[in-house]
Give the backbone structure.
Amino acid sequence: MVVDCKYKRLTSEALYHDDYYQVLAYCIATRSPNGLIVYPRQEFGVERQARIRNTDISVGQCAIDCSVVIDDFEKECDRFAEYVFSMAEDAEHQYT
């Protein structure tokens, strides 16, 4: 799985096509069927999954909240890890 972390403020719930194209290029170069774009958590949710047309590649988009106090950050990391592992498991079942 290819993971690309971004540190920029999203201006809306719109997809950032340039980010998707970049992860798609990484997936093609590494022959990975899955990519993930990680953004800092915004005022709105950004978790979604997109199947890239005419390929076997899926690119997910999610966020992690870096603004929480340190005591809550571990929970945020656990939530993020669960999301990533579930993506990996889904991909494993898809290609086996």
Summary: The chain has a mean pLDDT of 84.
